[in-house]
Specification:
Elements lengths: L13 H32 L9 H17 L4 H27 L1
Helix pairs in contact: 1-3, 2-3
């Protein structure tokens, strides 16, 4: 972690804000790496390629993100849209992994 990293409420200038944003982006990438690791695990565990896409689960994940955003007073509609893209990217990745494992 950057030694100059400060939480948002303690930032006093834009340099500190930018350091915080950059650090947060790195942490988000670590979390995305873990999330996509779960997609690799799902590809390994699922025995039928046709069950990779699960629309009910997709809706649940997006609804959970929207609700969490609302609780945090974040822009829920926009975050739900981000999650839509994230879930679609995850499904595409899982399909690629499913095929790769079984080639």
């Amino acid at each position: 972690m950057n030694d100059n990293f400060k939480l948002p409420e303690t930032c006093t200038n834009m340099a500190e804000v930018r350091i915080g944003v950059d650090q947060t982006d790195r942490e988000l990438m670590e979390l995305l790496d873990r999330r996509f690791g779960y997609m690799r695990a799902a590809a390994r565990i699922k025995t039928d390629r046709n069950v990779v896409r699960d629309e009910a689960r997709k809706a649940e994940v997006i609804d959970n993100a929207r609700a969490d955003a609302e609780t945090r007073n974040l822009p829920a509609k926009e975050i739900a849209e981000l999650w839509e893209h994230l879930v679609e990217a995850s499904i595409a990745y899982e399909l690629i992994e499913w095929d790769r494992i079984r080639d």
